[in-house]
Design brief:
Number of helices of chain B: 18
Largest interface: A-B, 14 and 18 residues
Mean pLDDT of chain B: 93
CATH architecture of chain A: Orthogonal Bundle
CATH architecture of the largest domain in chain B: Alpha-Beta Barrel
Strand content of chain B: 15-25%
Number of domains of chain B: 2
Number of helices of chain A: 3
Low-confidence stretches of chain A: none
Structural class of chain A: alpha+beta
Radius of gyration of chain A: 12 Å
Strand order of the largest sheet of chain A: 2-3-4
Distance between the termini of chain A: 4 Å
CATH topology of the largest domain in chain B: TIM Barrel
Number of strands of chain B: 17
Strand content of chain A: 15-25%
Strand order of the largest sheet of chain B: 2-1-3-4-5-6-7
CATH superfamily of the largest domain in chain B: Aldolase class I
Radius of gyration of chain B: 22 Å
Mean pLDDT of chain A: 90
Oligomer: heterodimer
CATH class of the largest domain in chain B: Alpha Beta
Number of domains of chain A: 1
Largest sheet of chain A: 3 strands, antiparallel
């Protein structure tokens, strides 16, 4: 799973921003969503993202996985991701 | 070469305007999110011109409605159409090709015109689905072509076209410009559904064709050459009268689509005086150049209903302005910002990043200029190196690579690979600008709600 080539991710003053080059729209991401997007190119599964996030946040694994799934579902619905 | 068709000969022609990919809406419902949808005036001019010569035209406008090939098939069959003209810019050329393939397979002769065909005709006529490309101003070449098709005459002597003959690409040479553009019939507004455009208040007119300047990134010269040709003030007012009478358009938004409305001062003053006298109460905007406006002119334009002028600024860096042959400086820009402010007219600037020599710092310099001038409206775009421009034709000299995927020539995508910046740097800069605009807009909306 990765960002489509038409979707660009930037970090601007610690804020994650997705930019859709096909229609010019932008989406601001919260801290967790930004980190998930940053991990996408280097991991192979939701579990791997969860592992990385768990090492940084003091939260239940179940809660983290739920957050990741929510972000990924949103990004799929928006058409930002491709397999 | 003679263009034959198996179909019954007649004087019916169909024009198709392809959608502009994701930038344009696919239905009227989406249109309010897009402020660049306006009637396809280029095609409407062509339709009016050939109608005046006895042709019957069918215009399929998918700027404002969803493209349905089945519907096109029905229109072609029902009206025994044998010639289809498709207009295209670079960004929607792939869509134009898809339509061309469809109508070619129905046995139609396919003619393609517009900015992309004018600039990249060699590639365009290399397609097996396209018979002829029209280069530049379309009226006369199209009319001559239609006559030749109907009379089964050779097309080789018709100026302003390109085609493929025995695997060779033939370009017949530029057709002379039409000098008396007052003599052209008004755009054929009856050929499309104008209601959505009226609802969007996106009616406008072209009061001159072409631009004498030679900005390095601009492909206007490929269509019009370097000469601007003007309609008289009287002719412009005739079209405004038509809007008023036919569309009950008095008091609404209007756009002048000229490359530069303020090029000929005397004519502009006449137009403004007549607009004031007629009391249309249009709220109108136009495009101009920094070096062609004066304070008096702006005051007069304001009196005639002008509320916003778009200027091609491009960069806040003087070296870049010099290198793109813009022939203005940042001091000139600042001066006109003040003049517009004094006249009560919105200064809208078109800015651009991604010139081959630019660096991340240069991008941010331009964005900083926008951020430090909250009184102006700005539109930033990423350079699309159109065919026929110096960047496209001389890419080796500029030391760049160009990704020739036409739907990426949308001013939002970086198709240039330069040694001076990475795609990540340009997109980060662009996103910074978009964030700024979003926050500015949100603040303004909040302020409006407070009052």
């Amino acid at each position: 799973m990765k960002l489509k080539s038409s979707i660009n991710f930037s970090k601007i003053e610690n804020e994650g921003v997705l930019f859709n080059t096909a229609n010019g729209s932008i989406y601001s991401l919260n801290e967790i969503a930004s980190q998930i997007v940053e991990y996408l190119p280097i991991v192979n599964s939701v579990d791997e993202i969860a592992e990385k996030l768990q090492s940084e946040y003091d939260a239940e694994r179940k809660e983290i996985i739920s957050d990741i799934n929510e972000v990924i579902l949103y990004m799929k619905e928006q058409g930002f991701l491709e397999e | 070469m003679i263009l034959y068709t198996e179909k019954t000969k007649n004087k019916n022609i169909m024009f198709i305007i392809p959608p502009l990919t994701e930038l344009y809406p696919n239905s009227v419902d989406d249109a309010d999110e897009v402020d660049i949808v306006h009637p396809p005036l280029g095609v409407l001019y062509l339709s009016a011109y050939v109608k005046a010569q006895g042709y019957k035209t069918f215009v399929y406008d998918s700027l404002i409605k969803k493209l349905e090939l089945k519907e096109i098939e029905l229109i072609i069959n029902k009206n025994q159409i044998n010639v289809v003209g498709i207009t295209s810019m670079s960004a929607n050329y792939e869509k134009a090709l898809e339509i061309a393939a469809f109508v070619k397979n129905m046995g139609c002769i396919v003619i393609v015109g517009g900015a992309h065909a004018s600039s990249a005709y060699k590639k365009v006529v290399s397609s097996p689905y396209i018979d002829v490309a029209i280069i530049g101003e379309g009226e006369v070449p199209l009319m001559n072509l239609l006559s030749a098709i109907n009379q089964e005459q050779v097309i080789n002597n018709i100026q302003g076209i390109a085609f493929k003959e025995d695997d060779e690409i033939v370009f017949s040479g530029q057709a002379p410009r039409i000098h008396d553009i007052d003599s052209l019939p008004l755009p054929d507004y009856d050929s499309i559904d104008m209601e959505p455009y009226i609802a969007l208040q996106s009616l406008g007119l072209i009061s001159s064709r072409g631009c004498p300047n030679n900005c390095l990134f601009c492909s206007s010269k490929n269509i019009w050459g370097h000469q601007a040709i003007f309609r008289s003030a009287k002719s412009v007012i005739q079209e405004l009268d038509y809007f008023d009478e036919k569309f009950k358009y008095r008091g609404k938004e209007l756009i002048f689509y000229d490359d530069n409305l303020t090029l000929k001062k005397e004519r502009l003053f006449k137009i403004c005086d007549l607009m004031i006298e007629k009391d249309y109460q249009f709220h109108w905007k136009c495009m101009s150049r920094i070096d062609t406006v004066t304070s008096n002119m702006l005051i007069k334009m304001k009196q005639a209903g002008c509320y916003s002028i778009s200027f091609g600024i491009e960069s806040a860096n003087n070296e870049t302005l010099f290198r793109i042959n813009k022939q203005i400086t940042t001091d000139d820009i600042q001066k006109v910002i003040r003049m517009c402010s004094d006249a009560g007219i919105i200064f809208h600037g078109y800015f651009m990043i991604g010139f081959p020599w630019e660096t991340r710092e240069n991008f941010m310099e331009t964005i900083e200029f926008i951020r430090t001038h909250p009184e102006i409206e700005a539109s930033l775009s990423i350079l699309s190196p159109y065919p026929g421009t110096d960047f496209y034709d001389n890419r080796e000299i500029w030391d760049i690579e160009i990704e020739e995927v036409w739907n990426k020539f949308n001013h939002l995508t970086s198709v240039i690979k330069s040694k001076n910046y990475s795609s990540s740097e340009i997109y980060t800069a662009f996103s910074t600008y978009l964030l700024y605009e979003e926050r500015k807009h949100n603040n303004e909306t909040q302020k409006q709600h407070q009052f």
